[in-house]
Amino acid sequence: MQVKEAIKTRRSVRKYTDRPVEDRMLEEILEAGTYAPSGGNNQSTHFLVIEDPAVIARLRKVATEQFAQMQLKEGMYKSLAATIRQSKEKGELYDFTYGAPVFVLLANKRGYGNAMADCALALENMFLQATELGIGSCYINQIHWLTENEAVLDVLYEIGLEKDELICAGAVFGYSAMGERAPLERFGNRITYMK
Ligand SMILES: Cc1cc2nc3c(=O)[nH]c(=O)nc-3n(C[C@H](O)[C@H](O)[C@H](O)COP(=O)(O)O)c2cc1C
User: Fold this and answer.
1) Which residue, by CA, sits nearest to atom 31 of ligand 1?
2) Is pTM beyond 0.85 here?
């Protein structure tokens, strides 16, 4: 598959089969992440790879409990508001990792100015590599939103987060149960040339 084809066929997958992701596939996806550029060649992105379903479920449970206690506010980012609403309504049955077998959290150093940029670039590399391998993926922001939350941090430290790191991004990977889908129509993302 050409890079261009991977870029154009990648979609966010929100329903997964039970098929586990083979170790060698996951290693390729993670390697693609580590080959992303980083500010000043810092290479300080920390990939926390969670494959134990019990740990994914525990992290989700703690996170949804925290979201359920939050107040919905006017003008709140719509995805965060939806997460709070679903957590209040469904509790731990609200599955923001969509039943995927692999949940990867990307952490970076507290106070590092390029932390988000480095993690986002790593993730896109991983999404494109996954697409080439026939593996579905989806960006998952819920743990990033709770990255300073004590209850969530307790679980994250057990998973391997260091005390001087914060979660910048997350993503799930697995075999899609959604079938092939066309790319979404592009209606934004303006390009302005001056030649
Ligand atoms: C920064 C960022 C955060 C996102 N967070 C989530 C998320 O938490 N949960 C989710 O299901 N999708 C998330 N997405 C996926 C977007 O909803 C998705 O990329 C967009 O709707 C376009 O659809 P496509 O990826 O299929 O082209 C996120 C995407 C980005 C770039």
Assistant:
1) 139
2) yes
Listed in sequence order, the DSSP H helices in the chain are: 3-9, 23-34, 53-68, 78-90, 115-132, 142-145, 150-159
Tell me the domain boundaries of the chain: 3-174
Q: What CATH code is assigned to 3-174?
A: 3.40.109.10
For residue 14, give the ligand 1 atom closest to its CA: 11
Q: Ligand 1: which of 83, 106, 141, 147 to mutate, judged by most atoms within 8 Å of the beta carbon?
A: 141
pLDDT at 1 over 80: no
**pLDDT tens-digit readout, 69-80:** 999 999 999 999
Distance 98 CA to ligand 1 centre (A): 13
CA of 129 to the centre of ligand 1 (A): 17
